[in-house]
Amino acid sequence: MNKVRWKAVQPLQHRDYRLLWTGLAVALLGSGLWLVALAWQVIELGGGPVQLSVVTTAYSIGLVVCVLFGGIAADRLPQRSVIIAADLVRGAVLLVLAALALTGLLEIWQLAVGAVLIGAGEAFLIPAYTALVPKLLPADQLLAANGLEGTLRPLAQQATGPALGGLAIAALSPGVAILVAALTYFFSAACVMAMHVRPETAEQMDAPADGPSGVRAIVGDLREAWGYVRTTRWLLASLLFGTFYVLLILGPLEVLLPFAVRDQLGGGPGDFGLVLAAFGIGGALGALAISSRRLPRRYLTIMTLMWGIGSAPILVLGFATDLWVMAVGAAIVGATGSAAMVIWGTLLQRRVPDHLRGRIASLDFFVSLLLMPVSMALAGPAGSLFGVTAVFIVAGVGPVLVSFAVVWFGRMRSDEILNPLDLAEAAGEGAETSQLTEGASNRISSDA
Fold first, then answer.
1. Which of 36, 123, 300, 387 ranks highest by number of CB atoms within 10 Å?
2. Per-residue pLDDT reduced to its tens digit, 222-234
C-alpha cells in the first residue's frame, strides 16, 4: 500500500533527478516572478498595453525562433551542459536588467532585447530537460517524474512565483524582483552542476565527426526528425491534434475569459484570479493523480480523449452565472489537460529513440507555439462578431470531435496494443518488489 501511495514521488529517491527537479522548481518560481516583475517594470517606465505587448512578443519570438535549434543541441550535445548554459544565460540577462532598473537606466527596448534572450534560453532548456530525464530514471518511473513536473509547473510558475513577485514589487521595486528571479536561475544551474551524470561517449551522441557540418547538418537533423514524425502515425496524429487544440482553446482562455467573468458574473480581477487559480490547481491535481498509478494500457486513446472530451467543460465558461460553476469548469479542463500532458511527456521519453528525443520534443513545442498567436488574434474579433458564448461553444465542442478523428487517423487503438508500456512498468515494479523481498529475507536471516 505504501508503495502505491508513494509512487508519485519515487523519482525523488534518485540523487541526480532530485537535483534536477529542485533546480527546475526554483527556476519556475523565478519565471513566474519575472513575468509579474516585467509587467510592472513596463508600467513604471511609463509604458502601456502596446509596450507590454511588444516585450512579451519579443519573448515569444526568441522561443519560437530558437526551439528547433534547441532540439538539435539537445541531441548533439550533453543535455546537462545545455541546461546549465541556458540557466546561466537567463540569469545573466536578468542580472543586467536588474542592474539597469535599480540604477534608473533601464528602457523598454532593453527589456525587449532581454526578453528575446530569455525566450531563447528556455527554447534550449526544454528539449534538453526532456531528453535528460530518461537517462536519470528507470522507465517505470518516468510517468511519475512527468507527474511531478506537471504538478510543480502550475503551482510554482502560475501561483507561487507571481505571488512572490507581487510581494517583492509591493515591498521594494520591480528591479529587486528581477534580481531575485536572476538568482533563481543561477541556483538552478548550480543544482545541475552538482549532478553526477556520466559523460556520453561519441557513439551515444548524434554528431559523427565525418558527417556534414554547419547549415547542412542542421537541415539534415531537422529532416531526420520530421521523417520520423511523418512515418510514426501516432506521433504525427498527436502533433496535429495539439495544433488544433491550441488554436481552439488558448485564445478563448487568454483573451475572452476576463470578459466572461465581467459580463456573466459581474466580477472583477479578484474573480478572474480565482478562476485562473482553479485552472492551475486542477492541473496540479490532475498531474498528481495520473502519475500515482501505472501508465494506462490504452495510453494513446486515453491521452487523446482526455484532451478532447476533457475540454468540453469550457462550454461552462460561456454560460456560467455563478463563480463556483465557472471555477469547477476551469478546474476540470486544467486537470484533464495536465493529466494528458503527463502521459504525453512519458511517451516522448519512452517511445522516441534516444538520438531523436530532443528534436522531437522541440518539434512538439514548436507546433504548440505555432498557432498560439493566431488563436489569440482570432479570439477577440470572433467574440465581437459571434459573442463570447458562441466562441466558448466552439472551444468546447471542437476538440471533442477532433479527438475522435485523431484516434482513428492515428490508428491508436491498434498501436497501443502492439506496443504495450504497462507490462514493462509491471515488470519493473515486480523486479523492485523482488529485490525488496530478497533484502528483507537476508536481513531476517542475518538477525537469526
1. 300
2. 788 788 888 888 9
Cα–Cα distances in Å, from 7 out to 23, 43, 135, 147, 324?
21, 45, 19, 10, 32
Quick count: other Cβ atoms within 10 Å of Cβ 191? 23
DSSP 111-178: HHHHHHHHHHHHHHHHHHHHHHHHHHS-GGGHHHHHHHHHHHHIIIIIIIHHHHHHHHHHHT-HHHHH
Neighbour-count burial of 444, counting CB atoms closer than 10 A to its CB (0-12 exposed, 13-18 middle, 19+ buried): exposed
Quick: pLDDT tens for 150-197: 777 767 666 665 566 666 666 677 888 889 889 999 999 999 999 887
3-state secondary structure (DSSP) of residue 346: helix
- Residue 89 contacts residue 121 (beta carbons within 8 Å): yes
Pairwise CA distance, residues 145 & 153, whole Å:
12
CB 204 within 8 A of CB 83: no
Q: Which three cell numbers stand for residue 439?
A: 533484502
C-alpha cell at 27: 527556476
pLDDT in tens, 399-413: 999 999 999 988 888
CA distances from 374 to 36, 49, 249, 402 (A): 24, 19, 11, 19
Ordered by where they begin, the domains of the chain are: 7-196 (1.20.1250.20), 226-428 (1.20.1250.20)
CA-to-CA distance for 47 and 51, rounded, in angstroms? 5
